[in-house]
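Morning F.,

Quick status update on the modeling queue. The single chain you submitted on Monday has been processed. Sequence for confirmation:
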Amino acid sequence: MTTRAEIAVLGGGLLGRLTALALRRQGRQVALYDAAGPAGEGAAAFVAAGMITPMAEAAVADNDIVAMGFDSLARWPQLLATLTRPVFYQHKGTVVVWHRQEQAEAHQFVAMVRQHSLTGQKTDSMQRLDAAGLAAHAPSLADRFSEGLYLPDEGQVDNRQVLAALADTLAAEGVTCHWQYPVDDTALPPAGLHIDCRGLGAKARWPGLRGVRGEVLRLYAPDVQLGRMVRLLHPRYSLYLVPRANGRVVMGATTLESEDMSPMSVRSALEMLSAAYAVHPGFAEARIEEMSTQCRPALPDNNPAIRVQLQTGQTVIAANGLYRHGFLLAPVVADELAALVRQLDNEPDAQLAFARQHQQTAWPALYGSHLQREAA
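Structure tokens below.
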């Protein structure tokens, strides 16, 4: 049994922790409930690479996602400065490379980025690199590639350090955290308002929600000096290499339409490792420290959504569908949830009105109003 909180946040992944923190800093009494522990081992964010890459994602995402991504990129260093623990953060951009036979992939990537990156407003941030430019931005790759792209407006954060720092900060700032507490949809924890950030844990309550499998390798590669993130364009997948402190590299590529949580396949591991070796031969002597899989929550259009639902006779604000954009979007979505709570305070009848319109989608109109408030 738990005491009644003003707001109960269901799900302690990245979005749930950021939302609980934002609400607490509004002066709310907040309780957080998660089926896993404070390390976040049950969350999709625990396996993610922590990439904040709005320009690169413009090749596969629409302008709303890109706009939110640039907003989040500006927020991350401000947020990290308020946490109780230091977190590895890097804003050095991304170098995109391709093998000579993949010129068509490079042309398509450039075209898609130009099409979707804020309808052309950010295309100056995509710089073409010749051999000299590549040597300047990624000297360890200069003898393997003769051209590339540089996307300076991109960053990364250590995903597991963030989850740990958020857990510590929540406790320090007075959020009551109930770890190892699976939420029962038929008997929600006592609270005046519930905010559901459970990702795939909320699948039974959100029609159309599906899992998208991702696979990640963590390597110890002290002989590979990347300096900044690297993407390799490929017709079947886009390999990314994310350098971390102390010679560590996070590597990923796969986005599979599957909710399979089983270990990584031999095929995936061989393809990623072969591609990494083709980028830099120093990976031949790297040590594989971890092979991880996780499923990310996605909606049919692969865009996030905020809805107000009726659940066991109570009103629940639910946010879901961050897909492969968790670290790219979570700070903005968390702030939108906090803004919606403020809106319900200012408009007492709004909560009842939303509840009567079961599963009403409140996104992306809320984000548009959010941008206007920020501009004001």
